[in-house]
Structures are given as C-alpha cells and as structure tokens.
Amino acid sequence: MLRLRVFALLIAAAVLGPIGRVNSHTESGNWHCHSGSGIRVRAQFIPGIITVDGKVDDWKDVEESNFPLLPALDPDADKEYNAGKMTLKAVHDGKEAYFMLQVNGNYAYTQGDSSKCPSVALMFQIGENASYHRMGGCEQGPDTCTNKTCHGHEVDIMHFSLGSAIPGRLYGGNPIDNREGYGGDRFGHLVDVYAWNPHCRFLDGMSPSGNDTTAQNDWQGSWWHSSLTDHSGFIKDDSPYASEGQKGTYYFEFSRPLRTMDRLQQDAQFTIGKSSKLSAAFWYPMDGKPWHGSAHYSISCDWILLDFISGGSEPTMVAQGSPWDAATAFSLLFSVVAFCMAIFIGHRLSRINRTGNFIPMDNL
Ligand SMILES: *[C@@H]1O[C@H](CO)[C@@H](O)[C@H](O)[C@H]1NC(C)=O
Ligand SMILES: *[C@@H]1O[C@H](CO)[C@@H](O)[C@H](O)[C@H]1NC(C)=O
Ligand SMILES: *[C@@H]1O[C@H](CO)[C@@H](O)[C@H](O)[C@H]1NC(C)=O
Fold first, then answer.
1. Would you state the CATH architecture of domain 2-308?
2. Single pTM value for the model
3. Ligand 3 contact via 207 beta carbon (within 6 Å)
4. 214 CA to middle of ligand 2, Å?
5. Domain extents for the chain?
6. For residue 278, how far is its CA from the centre of ligand 1 (angstroms)?
7. Which residue, among 99, 126, 131, has the nearest Cα to 35 in the 3D structure?
8. Residue 127 beta carbon below 6 angstroms from any ligand 1 atom
9. Which of 50, 132, 134, 62 is nearest to 93 (CA)?
C-alpha cells in the first residue's frame, strides 16, 4: 500500500516536475510567486520507526517529496542550488511529529563558526494571516511590531546551525534552557523562534513588549553527513569529524510534540487529520565562503501543505480490530462455560458432602 503510494508520488513528481517548477520573478517591485509544484507533504501515522540520531536508514519506507532549492529572496530557476534537490519526509506517531531533510553537499564544517557550516530551518504558519513571503508579512517595523499590532501574522521557526553541534548528538530543547523559559539552545544552536516579519524575529518567550518565561524550546534534532564514519560516537575533540570537501549528503532529523504548551501564539499546533503550512530553508557555505542570514535557499516561494494523516484511515489499521474482537468473544464464551462447570461440580460436591461419605473422584 505504502510502496504503491510512494511509487505513485514519484511518478507524479516526475511528470509534474518540469512544468511544476517554482517560477517566480519580481514584477515592478512586487513579489510574485508561481508555486505550481502542487506537492503536499504527507505525515503518515507510523509509530516506533524513527530514532532522532541524524542517520536516515530508518526513514526508507516513508514517502518522500523533492524540492528544487532556489534563493529565497530571488527565486530564479537559473540560480538553483547546483548539488541537487532537497528531500523532505515527515511522519507522526500520534504524539510527536518527525521531520527529515536531506540534501547533497560536499562536507563543510568549521568548529565554532556556523556560517562556514550548512544550516537548516523549518517554518510553519501560526496566525491565519501569516504569509510565507516576509516571514508572516506583518507591515510593522522593528520599533512598532508587538503581539497586538502583528496579531494574525505569527510564524513558527526552528533553526539548526551546526558550528557547535556534534554529528549524531541530540540538540534543541534541554532542561537548562527550558528552565529559563526561552526557546534557546546553548549547546548546539537548535533554537525555537517565532516571527512576524524578518525584522521582528525572536526566541520563544522574548518579545519587544516584555519577556515571558513560560516558553520552551519544543524541538530536538540531530545531523549527519554520509562521509562520516562513526564507531562509538563522536566527541568535540574529533572535530571536524571528516575531511573537508568530501562528496556526500547531509541529513537532518527533527522531532517535536504535535501540541505544545505555548500560550503566547509562538508555536504552530499540529492536529491529526488536518493540514499545516510549512516551508524549509537551507544555508550552505558556497566555495568555503561564509553565508549570511538572508542568503539562503528555500523549497518553494509559498507555503507547502503538510497533512497529518490519521492512523485510522489506513485499511490495515482498521482490520487490526477484528482478531482482537474474536479473541475477546472466545474468552467470554470460555469463561461462561467454565462458570457453569464450576456450579455443576459445586452442586455435585455439596450433595456428596451432605451424605458425609467419601466418594472416589472417578465416580463424579
Ligand atoms: C485576517 O485578515 C482578515 C481580513 O483582513 C481579518 O478579517 C481577520 O480578522 C484577520 N485575522 C486575524 C487573526 O487577525
Ligand atoms: C528579555 O530578555 C533578554 C535576554 O535575557 C534581555 O536582553 C531583554 O532586556 C529582556 N527584555 C525585557 C523587556 O525585559
Ligand atoms: C503580549 O505580550 C505581553 C508581554 O509578553 C503580554 O503581557 C500580553 O498578555 C500579550 N498580549 C496578548 C494579546 O497575547
């Protein structure tokens, strides 16, 4: 079933690919986006398969979506990231959502300098009026944006920078930063951020009108590159973990609860059976040159729909109910028969006892 769907999706992607390419240009200063890919990312209910360790062999049966990476601020097909498309996969286990991003790239890692390492971000719509373009698209400037003036334009962002993150280790929400009530991560820079526009972007819990220490970093994640060989786990002293420039693929894995305890409109909330709006971004130090914040690639010039599929919608899952029902019915029948036998034997015994004589068992 799953295989068939993946296959159908691959065919659809292959057919739609050339026409469905993200075509956009700047028209008299106005943003214009023809995001004709029509791709919907499906997060199916597949419990118990994903370990968030940066290694992606556990994702092999999950359907994939492939996106060309175009410069986010100038989505011109001529400037596509030249090492290949980004593959995105998502699943959920009924409680957590899992995401995998995969992109080809020669190995680049400079300890302590994130801008000389690759970096990825996921962005989700929170407010109903939050546009993909300009991270929510609130018209206010940095001096006037507040949770009131930009209400309805909130987007949720997870950003993972690699400069201090050891491959295969888990980063993101941790007890020390979460005790302080912010979306930060002092260990690996996998941060939980929200924004109203590119100039009004804050760690969860921080805002221009005051900080609220009830926030948390709800994300966790890990990274890996196919040129790395791991025997018993890397430590910081192993940095840079592999030699510079090796051909291969970067893998990023993330998890987050479907629902968070956010009360400030700073986290997207995911619902099984409903769709969310998503985008993904990628930064890479081209020719070893450090990247800067706005120079990133994006998977589309508009939101991509992400469907959280209910476990009950899979026929195989429904069928699982019947053998269990049969077993219950059988055990009920069995206990009724046993109960009747017990009464019968008890009755016979009480009659025997009334006579007060010992009667051998074989006479019963
Ligand atoms: C979104 O925009 C519409 C139309 O401008 C408006 O009616 C609605 O109240 C807005 N929603 C929020 C949450 O601000
Ligand atoms: C919020 O917290 C940050 C970091 O601790 C601090 O720099 C800022 O001044 C705080 N803002 C307010 C309004 O208290
Ligand atoms: C806006 O943020 C401030 C400071 O965190 C908070 O006190 C206030 O309740 C928030 N307002 C809304 C409408 O969420």
1. Sandwich (2.60)
2. 0.80
3. yes
4. 14
5. 2-308, 327-353
6. 20
7. 131
8. yes
9. 50
